[in-house]
Amino acid sequence: MKMLLAFCAALAFQQPADRTNSLINAIVAIVGVSSAEELTESEIERFMSFASSPLRINTASRSRIASSGLLSAYQAASLYDYRSRHGDVLSPAELSLVDGFGSGAAEALAPFLSFESASLPGERLSDKTVKSRSLILKTSFASRDDGRKNGRGWSAGVKYRHSADDVFEMALTARKSYDAERFFPPPEYTFHAVKYGRRGRGKMIIGDYNARFGQGLALWSGFEMTSVPAVSAFSKRSSGISPSWSYSSENTHRGAAVEQYVGNFRLSCLMSFPGLDRVMQGNKSARTSFFCGANVTWFTADGQVGVTASSESLLSADADWNIRGVRLFSELAAALKGGGAFAGTAGASVGLFDGGRGAVRLRMVPAAFSGKKNGEYGMALGFEFSAGPYVQMAGRQGFGSSKIRHQFSLTAEASALPVPVRDPDRRQLRLVSRYDSMLSPSMSLSVRFSGRWRNYGALHREDLRADLGWSDGRWSCRSRLNAVTSESFGWLCYLDGGYEAGRMSLFLRGTYYDADKWNDRVYCYERDAPGNFNVTAYHGRGFAVSLVGSCRLGKGRRRSRLYFRASRKKPGKAELKFQYMLDF
Length: 584
Prior knowledge:
The protein is mainly β. The protein has helices at residues 2-11, 19-31, 41-52, 62-67, 73-86, 92-95, 102-109, 276-280, 367-370, and strands at residues 55-56, 113-114, 131-145, 150-164, 168-176, 188-196, 202-212, 240-243, 253-262, 265-272, 291-299, 303-310, 314-323, 326-335, 341-353, 356-365, 376-392, 402-417, 426-440, 443-454, 460-471, 475-485, 489-501, 504-515, 522-525, 535-538, 540-553, 559-570, 572-583. Among the domains are: 1-129, no CATH class; 167-173 and 183-333, no CATH class. The chain has 9 helices and 29 strands. The strands form 3 sheets. It has a 24-stranded antiparallel β-barrel. A hairpin with a 5-residue loop joins strand 27 (540-553) and strand 28. Helix 2 (19-31) crosses helix 7 (102-109). The chain is globular, with a radius of gyration of 24 Å. Mean pLDDT is 86; it is low at 1-16.
């Protein structure tokens, strides 16, 4: 009976044919960006690791759920409270009924969560410990001849992770990047080992990790947006201390960290050695320094309040609270050195009517606080709504198989960037608007406009793109027309189509671009193997062709998949890439 319930829960959410594109769309929705081009390599890797080894929300501890970064602090507290009161969550449909989620959030999170359960409906938390191991091997061969760089080279990477739920986890990555000048450049590697405390109420990390507290004014590492492209991006997801399984150690900490829950309090302490990663890779000119920090956060079912301090003489207090559907978030920080400069951010997100939501954010970061040449003072407003009937998508069944017909979002951000007295103050306005529609059960349309206007540098940049997609459940096709104006005019169009079902997939894309000026370059996300971030800046005039395929091997718990990608950009480079993923 228990095995049958777990099997039914796994079938409750069925992935569409184009799974890679579906995962990217889910990441975009969770993070709060307006397109894949705004993501980073480390963020893609983080989510794709959950796609291959999903977070087991019915066995994971509060510490593991909160520090995963998949859920907001309110969602994590609400989920843990629901589990303790009503038992395991057996499907995305049930997750959508948990306070703080809803159908949209549950659908986006489902590919990265496991609803595996060893309990009957209504029973309390499961105590089952599951061990898993993941291995990723990849290599690529490239030749470049674009008038700026010439040469041939190869790259390679390996990832290994061993996990035993809330007991222990260890991981190691190594990567050799393409280098036309050196055939064997020094490899880049990261590692971490995590020991979870009794009943998962705490953890200790040695190696590479992220530390994200409050709204990011005093202590934040890893992915960070510089603008607010969507309403969900107005506030940040404070995940505390979490291990990093990225190929790159850039913007992460390398050292040791401890996190412990005591009642409703979370105590976090960390120390790291900036520059240690470059020293360990043999960079003789690199220097190592010392950094430490601490945070105390109090959690309730309605929100959290925290205090953060670091050895950089930064001290901050933050709050994230829900009051009858209104989410309030803020942080006030002080730089104790250099005269005691203050910085702050505050905002709110509120449901305006059925299907609508609005948000506002204020931000003040003086140059004396950040140490940058200019300060930052800004205000952002955002609005989104959905309307119309739900459309059943072709080839899909169960939860998440229907989409509301019309979705619209608009965000605007005005900022002043004051510089030294002798220079004129810098001002900037950003605008992002997006409209998505299900034209029919098999056809969708997405239109996005982003604009940036300022009184310095490139005075303006407007980007308009339209995506038209078609899918019948196995076959799918997507096309894009993208135009950019800044210094002159640039544009790009592509047609992407293929087949995915069962054990294999194959997709072909053809792209043509024309952007003579560098400021008119067009960024476009390229289909690739999971965990690879491939956003190409198209500049000049030419065409590109790529072929991406995969094949699933093995059965049962020992699951493996082989990916390949062959591409040719003219003028530019040719590349052949292979990746093998094994979960066992």
